[in-house]
């Protein structure tokens, strides 16, 4: 079983926005992406870098995972961002526009050369046409000596729309193939994968539908842009009480002495196999981690 840290709701905030960085300490998001890239104007980049590094070093975010999104290494700010992020020691650094396994390795080498703590993980944005075509090799980079920090894909659907010409439509038919390809690549190599943002944050029904669709595709959670999206997202990506009850029944069934040697048994008139007991154990473990977080 891989990492069971809940990553249902992952909220972006501009690194230049002091009020958002402070407010985030009270929000129910599982993870926070403190952004130095798209959400920050060129003139504000240096100030945002300092502000974000200070916020991460000062802490106060409780169990929320802290991720710093840097500018790409080919931009004028990338090097300084990566250095400041590495030294601040967040849970992860998120790098945009990654397109090859070599991109992952290059970032890994730079972090190692700086003596970055092994606890600082690497998340990558999947947001260009080439990244869609190279999804498996990018995920597989985690098995290379320089890629071991890689733990998570983040779908960048706005950039993907810009770069491909595919439209952002309700139901996301134009992007389904890419979303599923990235889910398969991530899961093949044991990575988590966080869905793209829903821009129209006033449209609660549309947002809920997209959260549920992402969950059904196999996404771990969803990136968010506004605090009002957090509760809907957390609920869509949490198992319901009925699902947790069912999971306990399935686990229990295989623990009965008479079922110890069986591969498949009947629970409430339905066939369940040992693989269902494995899924059930994961459901219960994630629910326990979420409950522990809600109590903290
Ligand atoms: N993170 C933390 N707090 C946020 C927030 C965010 N992403 N977005 C809004 N808030 C806070 C505001 O500071 C405000 O707090 P207050 O009531 O204590 O003053 C409150 O939530 C309500 O905000 P609201 O007035 O509805 O929104 P806004 O007009 O201030 O901001 C956006 C709207 C879209 C500009 C803002 O939500 C935002 O910057 N989102 C993130 C954008 C981003 O990071 N994009 C990059 C990745 S796609
Ligand atoms: Mg972008």
Describe the structure.
The chain is of the alpha/beta class and 296 residues long. The protein folds into two domains: 9-236, Alpha-Beta Barrel (TIM Barrel), CATH 3.20.20.60; 241-295, no CATH class. Helix content is 45%, strand content 16%. The protein has twelve helices and ten strands. The protein has helices at 18-23, 45-58, 78-88, 101-113, 129-133, 135-140, 157-164, 176-188, 204-217, 230-236, 241-255, 274-295, and strands spanning 9-14, 31-35, 65-69, 92-95, 121-126, 150-155, 192-195, 221-224, 264-267, 270-273. The strands form two sheets. Strands 1-2-3-4-5-6-7-8 form an eight-stranded parallel beta barrel, surrounded by five helices. Strand 7, helix 9 (204-217) and strand 8 (221-224) form a beta-alpha-beta unit. Helix 2 packs parallel to helix 3 (78-88) and helix 11 crosses helix 12 (274-295). The longest helix has 22 residues, at 274-295. The protein starts with 8 loop residues before the first strand and ends with a helix. The mean pLDDT is 96.
Give the SSE layout.
Elements: E1 9-14, H1 18-23, E2 31-35, H2 45-58, E3 65-69, H3 78-88, E4 92-95, H4 101-113, E5 121-126, H5 129-133, H6 135-140, E6 150-155, H7 157-164, H8 176-188, E7 192-195, H9 204-217, E8 221-224, H10 230-236, H11 241-255, E9 264-267, E10 270-273, H12 274-295
The structure holds coenzyme A and magnesium ion.
Magnesium ion binds at residues 38, 96, 127, 156, 159.
- Strand proportion, as a percent range, falls in 15-25%
Bound molecules: coenzyme A, magnesium ion
Total discrete domains: 2
CATH superfamily of the largest domain: Phosphoenolpyruvate-binding domains
Mean pLDDT: 96
CATH topology of the largest domain: TIM Barrel
Number of strands: 10
Shape: globular
Q: Helix-strand pattern, N to C?
A: EHEHEHEHEHHEHHEHEHHEEH
Radius of gyration: 20 Å
| Broad structural category | alpha/beta
